[in-house]
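Dock coenzyme A; give full complex structure.
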Amino acid sequence: MQGTRRSLSRPAGVKITGTGMCIPNKTLTNADLSKMVDTSDEWITQRTGIKTRYIISDGEDTSDLAAGAIKQACENANISPNDLDMVIVASMTQDVICPAMAATVVKKLGAIPCGAYDLNIACTGFVAALNTASCMIESGHYKNIAVCGADALSKITDWKDRRTCVLFGDAAGAAVLSANDDEEVGCLYQGMWSDGERGEVLYVPRTDADIPESEKEAFSGEYNTIQMNGKAVYKFAVNALADCVEDAMNSAGLTSDDIAMVIPHQSNLRMLQTAWKKLGFPIDKVYVNIDRFGNSSAGTVGLCLHELMDQKKIGDGDYVIFVAQGGGLSWGTSLWKL
Ligand SMILES: CC(C)(COP(=O)(O)OP(=O)(O)OC[C@H]1O[C@@H](n2cnc3c(N)ncnc32)[C@H](O)[C@@H]1OP(=O)(O)O)[C@@H](O)C(=O)NCCC(=O)NCCS
């Protein structure tokens, strides 16, 4: 009958059935960076916890990282990319503005005609994609969705600006989410927030018109590259991280004893340590791999999830909290029973 809703079979639960990651071959160590700008391994390690990161080479693009991560996530979920109903790629460094990078990824996966779209909320991207996909599956309209956070910030880094160029790396992390009969599994709580009033403490200006008066002096001089007020971002991120974790646990009636692992955006080791001290949360339940990958923006949370699943440090029945913050300013959280 025209205009009527087709009967939907709403799933009992949503399960993360497979994860994957992809990094470029080329590494960039702190020693390499100290030959490019006035910095040192000691300064970078002490202030950020980063030792090395991966950077794409000529001929490689963000969609290659995303396709690699999703391919591995499908293999681990024991499904073919052709079984996916939707691919959501979170990124702020898409190959081109149009077509959507997710469509290019679907092409690279050989999964045409899968649904595909991009989501851009900077470093909060993977958590936003996870939240979006879990709601889509719960609606009954989709069964299998691949979510991916993929960024190659090396494309929009001012390599002469030591304040920012030491922080970032390129990477992608992905997960396959599927409808599941077990009503216990899935996203128990999620939240997303933004504050555009503070957008220019972490932004990418295209022209002089995009630079507010207050940020003119700090501008590195290179348009279309990341500009950041490090101290303001640091303060915002510590509070956002701590508030998100507390909010998620309170909303689900859980305590830190119940949580197997917190999977935070990897922006800065010092920042994570300060947030966790503020929360009084056991530091061994906070996953950290920033030393090996740097801050890969939307890539970090999926990358951490994959490493944890792969090493069987988390698994069926565990409660995990995903939390991220970044440009926008934006922040978000997602509490799951795996
Ligand atoms: C970027 C960050 C590490 C800088 O640390 P900081 O303690 O705030 O350092 P400051 O900016 O005050 O700079 C201190 C000094 O180090 C210098 N400096 C900056 N970058 C440097 C580098 N890579 N190597 C050596 N010295 C550096 C500064 O010029 C300054 O020198 P001065 O005192 O002579 O003026 C820190 O602010 C931070 O982590 N912010 C959050 C960044 C982030 O996570 N962004 C992404 C969010 S998703």
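Observed: Residues 39, 43, 47-48, 123, 162-163, 166-167, 228, 230-231, 233-234, 237, 267-268, 271, 295, 326 surround coenzyme A (CB under 6 Å).
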